[in-house]
Amino acid sequence: MTTVSISELKANLSRYVRKVRRGGEVQVLDRGRPVARLVPATADGEEARERLITQGVVRPGRGGAAAILDEPPLTLPVSISDALAEDRDDRL
Q1: Could you tell me whether strands 2-5 and 33-38 are parallel, antiparallel, or unpaired per DSSP bridges?
Q2: What CA–CA distance (Å, rounded) separates 26 from 33?
Q3: N or C: lower Cβ tally within 10 Å for the chain?
Q4: What is the DSSP letter of 22?
Q5: How many CB atoms sit inside 10 A of residue 12's CB?
Q6: SS3 letters for 25-53?
């Protein structure tokens, strides 16, 4: 697998896409830390999904997403804007 920084990837994107098209993989680093991996696209998305489930990257759903919309929104003990303001104040 080839490892490349974001700036190098941006400068030579076509080159790395060709490498992936031929079956290679490219790991993308942001300030030395892995943030993404370019892999060849598969015609069978289900195969990729199963691979991600096996690796523990993705958890399969347990039902229809429509049921979520029937539930009332969460009631929080504090307003989100107050919590965000407090969090931002801690950084100053």
Answers
A1: unpaired
A2: 13
A3: C
A4: T
A5: 13
A6: CEEEEECCEEEEEECCCCCCHHHHHHHHH
